[in-house]
């Protein structure tokens, strides 16, 4: 079976609908057809400052949500990145074959470091995509399900795999992005031209999976919509309504055309009211299941430790090959 790998940062108290629709629902779907490795990337989560106690709690909340969304510990290997030390061990080597200018061209680094100021932005933020490449290459992943914002990082992972292979001999599978266009960029409810993002959207622009559905309903009600009154899909001309239609369609399984036909002659308010209900129905069981996992942290930690053990078998074998090819001494 082909391999799939992806990771998500535990940098908030809940995932948002952008994370779910852009990436996590594909994680769940791909476990049927792929040998699946998924990771709560806590090493990445410290690149912009953090509180240790909050980080540990968020890593558990992240894992609980992933199980609640349908990741099956029997079929998928879910683990926490810091429990698999091979990730930073490989990242060092990959960092040594990455150009300084090449890393500096990553737009996510440019945006985030500009916001933080160059004195405050960490070296970890700069090398983030190199660690991400190590995450992926350790598992010889064929496919990486992510949102559109990760395309450039994925391109770097591919370049580094190819570069290492040609310098030292074939070692890594060259991974392909798995980006499903329709939902690859869910936008901010308050600014429908920007991506829904936990670090740059205002709270009113994000729907969190774990928030009270009444709060989500209020945000949907006050979502920025477009001039005119017709409910049609037009991502350029009507980005606000198109975003709501995209979310509605993905959560309900109804096609966009079907929705457009059903709302013919109705107003934005009707669409928003019904979408709020669709969101409520979607998140309620996920919230219940998430709480179930969080109520038994010992069992949750055990599932994650088992995941880390399974991941280490694969990661250690790849790292051993890579280190040998680079010319390092064998492990003692
Ligand atoms: N708005 C989005 N639409 C589609 N996919 C999205 N993803 C994130 N936002 C959207 C995808 O979610 C996965 C998790 O990514 P992450 O852990 O790197 O989270 P992130 O990209 O840091 O999430 P945010 O909210 O966008 O955080 P900031 O603001 O810190 O960058 C990835 O596959 C991502 O593509």
Labels describing this entry:
5 strands, two-stranded parallel ribbon, mainly alpha, 332 residues, 3-stranded parallel sheet, binds adenosine-5'-tetraphosphate, 12 helices
Strand order of the largest sheet: 1-2-3
Number of strands: 5
Uncertain spans, ≥5 residues at pLDDT below 50? none
Order of helices and strands: EHEHEHHHHEHEHHHHH
What is Rg?
A: 21 Å
Describe the largest sheet: 3 strands, parallel
Secondary structure topology:
Elements: E1 3-8, H1 17-30, E2 35-40, H2 52-69, E3 76-80, H3 86-95, H4 100-104, H5 107-116, H6 123-138, E4 143-145, H7 151-168, E5 176-178, H8 213-221, H9 239-252, H10 256-262, H11 268-294, H12 297-326
Parallel strand pairs: 1-2, 2-3, 4-5
Helix pairs in contact: 2-11, 3-6, 3-12, 6-7, 8-11, 9-11
Bound molecules: adenosine-5'-tetraphosphate.
